[in-house]
Amino acid sequence: AQTVTQSQPEMSVQEAETVTLSCTYDTSESDYYLFWYKQPPSRQMILVIRQEAYKQQNATENRFSVNFQKAAKSFSLKISDSQLGDAAMYFCAYLHQGGSEKLVFGKGTKLTVNP
Amino acid sequence: NAGVTQTPKFQVLKTGQSMTLQCAQDMNHEYMSWYRQDPGMGLRLIHYSVGAGITDQGEVPNGYNVSRSTTEDFPLRLLSAAPSQTSVYFCASKGGRLAKNIQYFGAGTRLSVL
Fold first, then answer.
1. Which of A1, A50, B22, B41 is deepest in the core (most CB within 10 A)?
2. Rounded mean pLDDT of B68-80?
């Protein structure tokens, strides 16, 4: 079974600085997707970024980018120029393409942004 | 575009009571699922459906029932509520590969069982 591990329960960053959230996963599959979701205090789950495993190029969305290392099964999220509104829980998730297509989540990292 | 709509947003039950959490999506997605979120546990899959008339169990299915009579609706039933079912519940729907396999979530239901 696939597992997703987020080893940092909490992280903090100064406003305008850069922070990296870690995620590793375990799978024997070759075709899959990886996601980062943000959950602010409103508890709404918001998609931040997605990566297709067959693409070597790292995904970017404005201030958010990933470092996808397929061989190492690592999928870290980098937030540049951190803003107060970035404070939230961040969840890494794995989706196997095909079969049940279940999304497997890590336990989350709570990010605090200090002014 | 409403996306995924969950009702109610909050609910308090007594042990042994039953209730149904409603979920509807207007994106014509075949795949729908229910998760529960507990502190320090992330989101865990309860049940999912890959299309109308087809459901299957996820990681934590005990105490919950689902059915999928239409593409749009995927209700979650608690038959006899227990304090261990106190949690935040999320419904989600997902398009296929052409829709980039992105899961869209409802706003969640906070359930307390006393």
1. A50
2. 96
